[in-house]
C-alpha cells in the first residue's frame, strides 16, 4: 500500500502512443516545411490534439526535436543498405558504406 503523501501518476490513456505518433508526424511535416520554429499551435492542430496532450508527451519544444531526431536516426540505421542506395550511379562498396561513382 502506498503512503498518502506519495503522488500517484494517473494511468496513461490507451491511445497515448497513437497520439504521440500523431504529434511526431505533424511536427516532422511542419518542421520540413516551416523549420524547427514551426508554431506549437500548428503542430497540435495538424495532429488533432490539444496543447495539454502535446505538453504531456513533450514538456519542452526541445523534447519534441530530440525525439524526432532520435526516431529518424534509428530508422536510418535500421534500414537495409539497399533502401539507402541512391539510384543515380552510387554503388555500395561494403555493407554500410556508400561510395561515389567512378568517372
Automatic annotation (TrEMBL):
The keyword Manganese does not apply. Keywords: DNA-binding. Residues 17-76 form the HTH tetR-type domain. Residues 39-58 bind DNA. Pfam families: TetR_N. Residues 1-20 are annotated as: Disordered. It comes from the Bacteria. This is Putative transcriptional regulator, TetR family. Gene3D superfamilies: Tetracycline Repressor, domain 2 (1.10.357.10). One of its GO terms (molecular function) is DNA binding.
